[in-house]
Amino acid sequence: xxxxxxxxxxxxxxxxxxxxxxxxxxxxxxxxxxxxxxxxxxxxxxxxxxxxxxxxxxxxxxxxxxxxxxxxxxxxxxxxxxxxxxxxxxxxxxxxxxxxxxxxxxxxxxxxxxxxxxxxxxxxxxxxxxxxxxxxxxxxxxxxxxxxxxxxxxxxxxxxxxxxxxxxxxxxxxxxxxxxxxxxxxxxxxxxxxxxxxxxxxxxxxxxxxxxxxxxxxxxxxxxxxxxxxxxxxxxxxxxxxxxxxxxxxxxxxxxxxxxxxxxxxxxxxxxxxxxxxxxxxxxxxxxxxxxxxxxxxxxxxxxxxxxxxxxxxxxxxxxxxxxxxxxxxxxxxxxxx
Length: 338
Ligand SMILES: *Cc1c(COP(=O)(O)O)cnc(C)c1O
Ligand code: SF4
Known about the structure:
There is one protein chain. The chain is an alpha/beta fold. It folds into two domains: about 15-85, no CATH class; about 95-335, TIM Barrel (Alpha-Beta Barrel). Helices cover about 30% and strands about 15% of the residues. A nine-stranded mixed beta sheet has the order 1-2-3-4-5-6-7-8-9. Strand 6, helix 12 (about 265-275) and strand 7 form a beta-alpha-beta unit. The radius of gyration is 20 Å and the shape is globular. Mean pLDDT is about 90; it is low at about 1-10.
């Protein structure tokens, strides 16, 4: 662990915090930016109130102007379909409240613990299984941070700490550094994992300071990104993902299979090829969690399995993500046969 403090953030050309602050929060502004009329889409005011629209500009820049069916737009647009009651779609489909045994901690996977390091995200994905999660109860005070770290310290079966959220990269680099140092000081922890969508929606979040911090860690570090469509990755940002990779961070991706967004063989194969070119290994392809307000994204399991089978016929094995479903109460994801 290097003790040299680095101040390279000051020279980042466009600070991620400024980009975050400049995000779209009004559907009308986003639509105007995309040369769309409200009549082109099925916007819902109610859905906006239930779960606000939040879209950073770098992500909006990768949407196709004038296309109401753009696969990135469809992931973030509050639509009327969200307000329909659909049987089986509930607020806590994974029963996480039960695994949330202590504030800020979810311990349901063997040897791994989730540390809910930040309560917010840089983007609000409409299908998110945490859209109804009581984040406000999990915003940690300094004392609660210590209690969460004590929990990890006191259980030597925990080998891996997964920073989750919300999005853990919402934390400033200085704060992350302190957290990392405390985790590194726990001898039985060997691996650190960061689950984040921030490097995708604001690639400037991959700061030089972040890369140095992770490169210097004694822990084996991985970062599980969340990318659903090849258009989410722009060639202009390739160097940032490479920088993260060159810092020794293993980059993995989890995607969610979403109707109209990526439910075709063409979209899925392009996604997995594009990921690899960015140094990211396809890891999971999730079936949608039955979360209230997300039924319009559902792809039936039979279709999912068929798509997965077709992918196997055209891509090398290492570009095939595992097709999985998360089931409440289970200690691992359920692998689906193709
Ligand atoms: C599945 C999952 C995990 C555990 O992941 P593994 O890769 O199976 O160890 C951790 N956090 C979240 C949010 C997950 O969805
Ligand atoms: S970034 Fe992840 S946690 Fe945040 S809203 Fe999107 S899917 Fe949910």
